[in-house]
Amino acid sequence: MANETVLKRYEGNPIITAEAVPTANTIFNSAAVPFGKGYAGVFRVDTTNLECEMHVGFSEDGIHWKIDPEKIVVVSDDPDAVPGGPVNPYDPRVTPLEGEFIVTWCNYCAGPGPHIGAARTVDFKAFTLIADIIFPYNRNGVIFPRKVGGKYAALHRPSDTGHTPYGDIFYATSPDLVHWGNHHYIFGPRGGWQGGKTGAGPVPIETGEGWLMIYHGVRITCSGYVYAVGAALLDLEKPWKVLYRTKRYLLHPTEPYERCGDVPNVCFPCAAIVDAKTREVMLYYGAADTTVCLATGNLDELIDFVKKNSF
């Protein structure tokens, strides 16, 4: 297909459409992880009344999914928590961490702007609220799969109450997944396909070359935003230190399902699964804010691409 690099689109894209859930208007920007003998995922479902929900899904092969028609209910022991769980949660990420799974999302639990919420689960049946983490207003909260320097770590992007012009990725740490601080700047927009803003994508992948951070970059054009996919290598022990960052994009809206939809011209990465034996990377991304798509590549080739095509 046109403009492909080391990531190749799955020929059967999109792999998930609104047909998967009876009440769905669209399903996109969703996360998946290995689970049991197959895979589990948390999916963004925008309903036919155009409210955002999160739904659980399961798959044997990571391609063909069965998604629960009922939304996830996040419970909390906090009497001050919003009754019924997060309000309009969207763009979830799922991090395997210390024997459980941490789900993060963006939502509007308090005030007019977006917050990052988090919950934990061990079985993708029961979800318990951790807290609204980081600080408002914020988007693209992604937790690392292990502690760094003895503390939990996360990526996030400060925002505002609207379609933020801010586009800078930050790093933060926490002793308990609730209280976050020690913020470090990682990087922001830098011309071309990522000249408007940037944001963290899937859970960072630990490699011998550093943390592989796949991210989205936005170009602002006369007809709107264009979301493409890039990657960077971050220092393993000081992840705010950027070792390499792609000047060329990895994936850019090209196919009709990426160019046409509720929000045209969007490739928005939310999850990446690595096969430890084959080194294959399965990258899940939202297309045009309408469907879930898949691209695959080899981890070593991906790292090599980042290093050879860096600023």
How would you describe the overall organization of this protein?
It is a single chain. With 311 residues, the protein is mostly beta strands. The chain has one domain (8-308): 5 Propeller (Tachylectin-2, Chain A). The protein is 5% helix and 49% strand. The chain is built from 2 helices and 22 strands. The chain has helices spanning 256-259, 299-308; strands spanning 8-9, 24-35, 38-47, 52-59, 65-67, 74-75, 90-97, 100-107, 115-121, 127-133, 138-143, 152-158, 169-174, 181-187, 197-200, 205-207, 210-221, 224-234, 242-245, 267-274, 280-287, 291-298. It has a 5-stranded mixed beta sheet, with no helix packed on it. Strands 15, 16, 17, 18 and 19 form a 5-stranded antiparallel beta sheet that branches. A hairpin with a 4-residue loop joins β3 and β4 (52-59). The chain is globular and about 50 Å long.
Q: Please, how many domains?
A: 1
Order of helices and strands: EEEEEEEEEEEEEEEEEEEHEEEH
Q: What fold name goes in the CATH topology slot?
A: Tachylectin-2, Chain A
Helix content: under 10%
Overall structural class, as computed from helix and strand content, comes to mainly beta
> What's the architecture in CATH terms?
5 Propeller
Largest sheet: 5 strands, mixed
Supply Rg. 18 Å
Write the layout of secondary structure elements.
Blueprint lengths: L7 E2 L14 E12 L2 E10 L4 E8 L5 E3 L6 E2 L14 E8 L2 E8 L7 E7 L5 E7 L4 E6 L8 E7 L10 E6 L6 E7 L9 E4 L4 E3 L2 E12 L2 E11 L7 E4 L10 H4 L7 E8 L5 E8 L3 E8 H10 L3
